[in-house]
Every structure is written in structure tokens, then in C-alpha cells.
Write a structure and sequence with these properties.
CATH superfamily of the largest domain: Response regulator
CATH topology of the largest domain: Rossmann fold
Largest sheet: 6 strands, parallel
Number of helices: 11
Structural class: alpha/beta
Order of helices and strands: HEHEHEHEEHEHEHEHEHEHEEH
Mean pLDDT: 91
Length: about 325
């Protein structure tokens, strides 16, 4: 009888372990998501994906970073996260040069670090998950060419030069414009993380006429589009506005015709698969990390995971709105 009881107890213990999944995951495992501008709808969507993956794996998700564009504050959060020795860090890099040495230090300490949304390609980060930002620029550039009469005109960009993902998007636009000499880039406005700077500059450009008239405004990040749109609402000249990302306000402005199109990204997907990738590295990855997997033909990691882009305009805007509404109901 005692032997039968022991066998029954053993079988019940094995079943319990299998059902709880505690052989692999533990609530003591902590994963960080770090970025700037955490109040933006874009980043709130990313946080949803990160938390969803954490809930599925029964691990802890910590989301840190400044509510505004503040690279130094974000770097401080990265340093604090590394000091806490978590199971992994997913980070959107505001300044590749500024962050490189600390990312390298984290990797050297054995902490898996993956970049998302904005990369630090010359650091030792394991790999990058996010938009093919060069392709996003190509899509936007092709849209501008197709919408400007004769494929000609003066254009102004709103960006934050030095942020890797935005610089890549700008390069993508310029690649397309290189084959269209009638397109002239008048200025790349550095909004410095302040969307109201886009509003002020757009107002100034609206006053220019003749050969100096601006024919298209291009926003390389999410917040500027709505500010420029508020200037263009009563524009009798019907200047072109191409935005970035698919928050509800941007989609509504597409419906009204003020924004011609926007380039959609997938921040939920980036953060969702980002945490799961970190978890796999934490459990199954190498005990120590190489300094540069990009030149290792036997690397266990990809260089880049492309989560996709799309042009959103009046034709397909409802598809994106419906997808967001469905996700909120789950």
C-alpha cells in the first residue's frame, strides 16, 4: 500500500508540474521594455504586446522610460535595468552612439539585449526586431511621387535627426526622390521631441508662395502628423501630408482627407515577439555572448526580424480601425 501511495504521489506531482509549466518559467524572471515618449499611443500599443507575452509565460514585465523624448533619461533607465540583472532587455534606442557602450556592457554581463523599433546596429545587441525603416521610407516616397502633380514639388520633413529609425526612413525617401529631380527637399525640421514645433514650422511654411510654396509635408514620426494636420485643415491649396503610424486621431484625419496617407508599423508585434525571443535566449541561448553575431555565419540569431509596414489611406483605413477595435475587445 505504501508503495502504491508513493507512486500515486509521484504521478500527481509530475502532472502538477506539467500543468503549471514551472519547469521552464518562473515569476522571478524579469524582462524590461525601455523607450522614450512612453505616453504616445504607439508605445502604449507596444506595452500591450509586451504585457501579453509576459502573461502567457507567467513572468514579470517591467516597462520604463521617460514620457517625453529624453535620450539621457532613457539611458539612465537602461543603466538601472542592467544593474538589476534581469532575464532580458528589449530597448528602442534614441541615440545609437550614446547607448552603444552601455548595451555592450549589458551583453558582456550576460544579459540578453534585443533592440526594437530603433536599432543600435554597431553595438553588441543580439539582433533587431522592428520595421524595415528604409522600406518604410521607400513606401512613403513612392506615395509622395504618385500624389504630387507631375511628381514635382517642394517638400519639408519633420524628424529628429540622429535617431536611427527616423534617419533610415529619411534615407528611404531620398532614395526614391533621387530618381525624380523635380522633388526638392527644402528642410528637415528637427522637432526635438516637441510635436508643437511641427505646428509652428508648418504655419511658417504655409505663408510661403510662388516658387517657395511647400507642396508636401512629410512626418517621419508619429506625433508631428496631427500637429501639421491642424495647420492644414483649412488649406485651400490642398498640400500633401504623409504621416507615420496609425493612432486613432491619424486614422480619423485620413478619413477627413487632411492626411493623405500614413505608414503603418506593428509595435504590438515587435514587443510581443521581443519578450518571447528574450525568454528563449534566457533559457536556451549561449552562456556567454559573442561581440558580433552579424559576421558569424553560424550565429544562433538573425540580424533583423522585419515586422512589416503598410500604406494606409482612405481605401483601407477602416481595416486598420477595425483591427484596433477588435484587439481592444479581447
Amino acid at each position: 500500500m505504501q508503495k502504491a501511495q508513493r507512486l500515486l504521489l509521484l504521478s500527481m506531482t509530475v502532472a502538477l508540474l506539467a500543468s503549471t509549466g514551472c519547469q521552464r518559467h518562473s515569476h522571478s524572471e524579469v524582462y524590461y521594455l525601455i523607450s522614450n515618449n512612453m505616453k504616445l499611443a504607439y508605445w502604449q500599443t507596444a506595452v500591450e504586446g509586451f504585457n501579453k507575452a509576459a502573461a502567457e509565460y507567467h513572468v514579470q514585465a517591467k516597462v520604463v522610460g521617460p514620457d517625453t523624448y529624453d535620450p539621457q533619461a532613457e539611458l539612465t533607465e537602461l543603466q538601472h535595468a542592467i544593474a538589476a540583472k534581469p532575464a532580458g532587455i528589449l530597448i528602442s534606442v534614441a541615440d545609437a552612439t550614446m547607448f552603444q557602450s552601455d548595451i555592450n556592457a549589458g551583453i558582456d554581463a550576460g544579459i540578453p539585449i534585443i533592440t526594437m523599433d530603433s536599432d543600435a546596429p554597431h553595438s553588441h545587441r543580439l539582433f533587431f526586431i522592428g520595421t524595415n525603416n528604409l522600406e518604410a521610407g521607400h513606401l512613403g516616397g513612392q506615395r509622395v511621387i504618385s500624389q504630387l502633380p507631375g511628381g514635382k514639388g517642394n517638400v519639408v520633413f519633420f524628424s529628429m535627426p540622429g535617431q536611427p529609425n527616423l534617419d533610415e526612413r529619411f534615407k528611404g525617401y531620398q532614395d526614391v526622390f533621387a530618381d525624380h529631380p523635380g522633388i526638392k527637399t527644402v528642410e528637415v525640421v528637427d522637432i526635438k521631441g516637441e510635436s508643437t514645433a511641427a505646428f509652428d514650422k508648418a504655419q511658417q511654411y504655409m505663408a510661403q508662395t510662388g516658387d517657395k510654396k511647400i507642396d508636401a509635408f512629410i512626418c517621419l514620426e508619429a506625433s508631428a502628423g496631427k500637429e501639421v494636420a491642424s495647420v492644414l485643415k483649412n488649406d485651400s491649396a490642398h498640400r500633401l501630408l504623409v504621416a507615420m503610424d496609425v493612432d486613432p486621431d491619424t486614422l480619423n484625419l485620413i478619413r477627413s482627407g487632411v492626411i493623405n496617407a500614413t505608414i503603418a508599423q506593428k509595435p504590438y508585434t515587435m514587443a510581443y515577439i521581443g519578450l518571447k525571443a528574450l525568454d528563449q535566449v534566457h533559457h536556451d541561448g549561449p552562456k556567454t555572448f559573442s561581440s558580433d553575431y552579424s559576421v558569424d555565419t553560424f550565429s544562433p540569431f538573425p540580424v533583423f526580424v522585419d515586422t512589416g509596414t503598410a500604406v494606409v489611406d482612405k481605401v483601407n483605413v477602416d481595416l486598420f480601425s477595425n483591427a484596433a477595435a477588435t484587439a481592444q475587445q479581447k
